[in-house]
Amino acid sequence: MTSDDSTPRVLAAGVLDGRNLRGTGGIDVSWTELGSPAPGDGRTLRTVFGHSDTTYRRLDRISRSLVLAAHAAGLGEVLTPDELRDAALIAETHVGCLEIDRRYTASLAGELVAATIFPYTLPTTSLGEVALRFKLHGPTMSISVDDDRRGAALREAWRMLAAGEVRHVVAASVDVLDEPGPGLPAGVRAVVVVVGAPEFVKSDRAVMAWPDAVQRPGNDPFGALEPPRR
Looking at residue 92, what is its pLDDT? Predict the structure, then answer.
Protein backbone atom coordinates (compact mmCIF):
# COMPACT_ATOMS: atom_id res chain seq x y z
CA MET A 1 0.00 0.00 0.00
CA THR A 2 1.21 3.44 -0.84
CA SER A 3 1.82 6.06 1.84
CA ASP A 4 2.18 9.02 -0.53
CA ASP A 5 0.30 11.97 1.01
CA SER A 6 -0.92 12.99 -2.47
CA THR A 7 -2.96 9.82 -2.88
CA PRO A 8 -6.73 9.91 -2.32
CA ARG A 9 -8.27 8.98 1.02
CA VAL A 10 -10.59 5.97 0.99
CA LEU A 11 -13.58 6.95 3.14
CA ALA A 12 -15.89 3.98 2.62
CA ALA A 13 -16.36 0.80 0.61
CA GLY A 14 -19.21 -1.58 -0.12
CA VAL A 15 -19.31 -4.80 -2.10
CA LEU A 16 -22.02 -7.09 -3.41
CA ASP A 17 -21.20 -10.49 -4.86
CA GLY A 18 -22.83 -13.87 -5.26
CA ARG A 19 -22.22 -14.75 -1.62
CA ASN A 20 -23.05 -11.68 0.44
CA LEU A 21 -23.42 -7.93 0.85
CA ARG A 22 -20.92 -6.19 3.10
CA GLY A 23 -19.41 -2.78 3.69
CA THR A 24 -17.53 -0.43 5.92
CA GLY A 25 -20.91 1.04 6.83
CA GLY A 26 -21.39 -1.99 9.07
CA ILE A 27 -23.47 -4.22 6.78
CA ASP A 28 -22.51 -7.89 6.47
CA VAL A 29 -25.31 -10.23 5.39
CA SER A 30 -25.46 -13.30 3.16
CA TRP A 31 -28.00 -13.99 0.42
CA THR A 32 -28.85 -17.22 2.22
CA GLU A 33 -29.92 -15.15 5.22
CA LEU A 34 -31.92 -12.83 2.99
CA GLY A 35 -33.60 -15.73 1.20
CA SER A 36 -33.00 -14.39 -2.30
CA PRO A 37 -30.17 -14.58 -4.84
CA ALA A 38 -27.95 -11.58 -5.52
CA PRO A 39 -28.72 -8.77 -6.08
CA GLY A 40 -31.95 -9.22 -4.15
CA ASP A 41 -35.57 -8.36 -4.83
CA GLY A 42 -38.08 -5.64 -4.00
CA ARG A 43 -37.87 -6.44 -0.27
CA THR A 44 -34.08 -6.37 0.06
CA LEU A 45 -33.55 -2.64 0.49
CA ARG A 46 -36.05 -2.43 3.34
CA THR A 47 -34.91 -5.67 4.95
CA VAL A 48 -31.23 -4.68 5.06
CA PHE A 49 -31.32 -0.89 5.34
CA GLY A 50 -34.86 -0.05 6.43
CA HIS A 51 -35.31 2.14 3.35
CA SER A 52 -38.52 2.27 1.35
CA ASP A 53 -38.03 2.55 -2.42
CA THR A 54 -41.07 1.77 -4.56
CA THR A 55 -39.00 1.94 -7.77
CA TYR A 56 -36.30 -0.50 -6.67
CA ARG A 57 -38.19 -3.56 -7.90
CA ARG A 58 -38.13 -2.36 -11.51
CA LEU A 59 -34.36 -1.83 -11.61
CA ASP A 60 -32.16 -4.09 -13.70
CA ARG A 61 -29.59 -6.24 -11.89
CA ILE A 62 -26.70 -3.87 -12.60
CA SER A 63 -28.54 -0.93 -11.05
CA ARG A 64 -29.65 -2.98 -8.05
CA SER A 65 -26.09 -4.14 -7.48
CA LEU A 66 -24.66 -0.62 -7.57
CA VAL A 67 -27.41 0.85 -5.38
CA LEU A 68 -27.03 -1.88 -2.76
CA ALA A 69 -23.21 -1.65 -2.75
CA ALA A 70 -23.47 2.13 -2.33
CA HIS A 71 -25.81 1.67 0.64
CA ALA A 72 -23.46 -0.95 2.13
CA ALA A 73 -20.64 1.61 1.91
CA GLY A 74 -22.80 4.06 3.85
CA LEU A 75 -22.58 6.60 1.04
CA GLY A 76 -25.46 8.63 2.43
CA GLU A 77 -23.75 8.95 5.81
CA VAL A 78 -20.04 9.27 5.01
CA LEU A 79 -20.55 12.41 2.90
CA THR A 80 -22.60 15.47 3.81
CA PRO A 81 -25.46 16.58 1.51
CA ASP A 82 -23.24 19.29 0.04
CA GLU A 83 -20.39 16.82 -0.53
CA LEU A 84 -22.78 14.36 -2.18
CA ARG A 85 -24.14 17.06 -4.44
CA ASP A 86 -20.71 17.94 -5.84
CA ALA A 87 -19.16 14.43 -5.92
CA ALA A 88 -18.29 12.74 -9.19
CA LEU A 89 -19.56 9.25 -10.02
CA ILE A 90 -17.32 6.96 -12.10
CA ALA A 91 -17.94 3.28 -12.81
CA GLU A 92 -16.04 0.73 -14.83
CA THR A 93 -17.38 -2.48 -16.34
CA HIS A 94 -16.06 -5.35 -18.41
CA VAL A 95 -19.32 -6.95 -19.58
CA GLY A 96 -21.35 -3.75 -19.71
CA CYS A 97 -25.07 -4.18 -20.35
CA LEU A 98 -24.76 -7.52 -22.15
CA GLU A 99 -27.32 -9.21 -19.91
CA ILE A 100 -30.03 -6.64 -20.64
CA ASP A 101 -29.02 -6.40 -24.30
CA ARG A 102 -29.64 -10.13 -24.66
CA ARG A 103 -33.05 -9.91 -23.02
CA TYR A 104 -34.14 -6.91 -25.06
CA THR A 105 -32.92 -8.40 -28.35
CA ALA A 106 -34.71 -11.68 -27.60
CA SER A 107 -37.95 -9.76 -26.98
CA LEU A 108 -37.83 -8.30 -30.50
CA ALA A 109 -38.67 -11.75 -31.87
CA GLY A 110 -41.82 -12.01 -29.74
CA GLU A 111 -45.21 -10.39 -29.85
CA LEU A 112 -44.36 -7.91 -27.12
CA VAL A 113 -41.13 -5.90 -27.05
CA ALA A 114 -39.66 -5.48 -23.55
CA ALA A 115 -39.78 -1.71 -23.79
CA THR A 116 -39.48 -1.15 -20.04
CA ILE A 117 -35.95 -2.54 -19.97
CA PHE A 118 -34.74 -0.59 -23.00
CA PRO A 119 -33.29 2.31 -20.92
CA TYR A 120 -31.00 -0.19 -19.18
CA THR A 121 -29.33 -1.11 -22.47
CA LEU A 122 -27.31 2.07 -21.83
CA PRO A 123 -24.48 1.61 -19.28
CA THR A 124 -24.99 5.09 -17.87
CA THR A 125 -28.57 4.37 -16.79
CA SER A 126 -27.40 2.42 -13.74
CA LEU A 127 -25.24 5.38 -12.72
CA GLY A 128 -28.27 7.63 -13.04
CA GLU A 129 -30.18 5.38 -10.65
CA VAL A 130 -27.41 5.75 -8.07
CA ALA A 131 -27.16 9.51 -8.61
CA LEU A 132 -30.91 9.99 -8.18
CA ARG A 133 -31.03 8.05 -4.91
CA PHE A 134 -28.04 9.77 -3.33
CA LYS A 135 -28.55 13.19 -4.93
CA LEU A 136 -25.22 13.24 -6.76
CA HIS A 137 -25.05 16.20 -9.16
CA GLY A 138 -21.38 16.04 -10.14
CA PRO A 139 -19.74 14.62 -13.28
CA THR A 140 -20.76 11.07 -14.20
CA MET A 141 -18.69 8.66 -16.29
CA SER A 142 -18.98 5.03 -17.40
CA ILE A 143 -15.76 3.31 -18.55
CA SER A 144 -15.48 0.06 -20.50
CA VAL A 145 -12.42 -1.95 -19.43
CA ASP A 146 -10.65 -5.12 -20.48
CA ASP A 147 -9.43 -7.54 -17.82
CA ASP A 148 -5.90 -6.14 -17.98
CA ARG A 149 -7.03 -2.53 -17.56
CA ARG A 150 -9.16 -2.83 -14.43
CA GLY A 151 -8.85 0.07 -12.02
CA ALA A 152 -9.52 2.70 -14.71
CA ALA A 153 -12.27 4.25 -12.59
CA LEU A 154 -9.85 4.67 -9.68
CA ARG A 155 -7.16 6.14 -11.91
CA GLU A 156 -9.66 8.66 -13.32
CA ALA A 157 -10.85 9.45 -9.80
CA TRP A 158 -7.27 10.23 -8.74
CA ARG A 159 -6.77 12.42 -11.81
CA MET A 160 -9.95 14.42 -11.11
CA LEU A 161 -9.08 14.88 -7.46
CA ALA A 162 -5.48 15.89 -8.22
CA ALA A 163 -6.67 18.38 -10.84
CA GLY A 164 -9.05 19.97 -8.36
CA GLU A 165 -12.11 19.21 -10.51
CA VAL A 166 -13.93 17.66 -7.55
CA ARG A 167 -13.27 17.00 -3.85
CA HIS A 168 -14.91 13.58 -3.67
CA VAL A 169 -15.50 10.71 -6.08
CA VAL A 170 -17.75 7.69 -5.85
CA ALA A 171 -15.82 5.08 -7.86
CA ALA A 172 -17.27 1.69 -8.76
CA SER A 173 -16.62 -1.55 -10.56
CA VAL A 174 -19.62 -3.61 -11.66
CA ASP A 175 -20.09 -6.76 -13.73
CA VAL A 176 -23.37 -8.66 -13.83
CA LEU A 177 -24.09 -11.51 -16.22
CA ASP A 178 -26.74 -14.23 -15.87
CA GLU A 179 -25.35 -16.55 -18.55
CA PRO A 180 -21.70 -16.97 -19.60
CA GLY A 181 -20.47 -15.72 -22.95
CA PRO A 182 -17.23 -16.24 -24.89
CA GLY A 183 -14.54 -15.52 -22.32
CA LEU A 184 -17.13 -14.00 -19.97
CA PRO A 185 -18.16 -15.99 -16.89
CA ALA A 186 -21.60 -15.59 -15.36
CA GLY A 187 -21.72 -13.89 -11.99
CA VAL A 188 -22.49 -10.71 -10.08
CA ARG A 189 -20.09 -8.28 -8.41
CA ALA A 190 -20.25 -4.60 -7.59
CA VAL A 191 -17.72 -2.63 -5.56
CA VAL A 192 -18.38 0.99 -4.60
CA VAL A 193 -15.74 3.12 -2.88
CA VAL A 194 -15.90 6.71 -1.72
CA VAL A 195 -12.66 8.64 -2.02
CA GLY A 196 -11.65 12.18 -1.21
CA ALA A 197 -8.84 14.59 -2.05
CA PRO A 198 -6.22 14.49 0.75
CA GLU A 199 -6.18 18.26 1.15
CA PHE A 200 -9.88 18.20 2.12
CA VAL A 201 -10.00 14.93 4.07
CA LYS A 202 -8.13 14.24 7.30
CA SER A 203 -6.06 11.07 7.22
CA ASP A 204 -7.84 9.62 10.25
CA ARG A 205 -11.07 9.43 8.25
CA ALA A 206 -9.54 6.85 5.88
CA VAL A 207 -10.91 3.33 6.43
CA MET A 208 -8.23 1.62 4.34
CA ALA A 209 -5.14 2.49 2.31
CA TRP A 210 -5.15 3.39 -1.36
CA PRO A 211 -3.89 0.26 -3.22
CA ASP A 212 -0.62 0.31 -5.13
CA ALA A 213 -2.28 -1.96 -7.71
CA VAL A 214 -4.13 1.07 -9.13
CA GLN A 215 -1.01 1.93 -11.13
CA ARG A 216 -0.17 -1.63 -12.21
CA PRO A 217 -2.03 -2.89 -15.33
CA GLY A 218 -3.14 -6.49 -15.10
CA ASN A 219 -4.35 -6.21 -11.49
CA ASP A 220 -7.79 -5.51 -10.04
CA PRO A 221 -7.26 -2.80 -7.42
CA PHE A 222 -10.93 -2.87 -6.49
CA GLY A 223 -10.24 -6.28 -4.96
CA ALA A 224 -7.91 -4.63 -2.46
CA LEU A 225 -10.69 -2.21 -1.47
CA GLU A 226 -13.30 -4.84 -0.64
CA PRO A 227 -14.26 -5.09 3.04
CA PRO A 228 -13.20 -8.51 4.42
CA ARG A 229 -15.65 -11.39 4.45
CA ARG A 230 -16.85 -12.53 7.83
Answer: 97
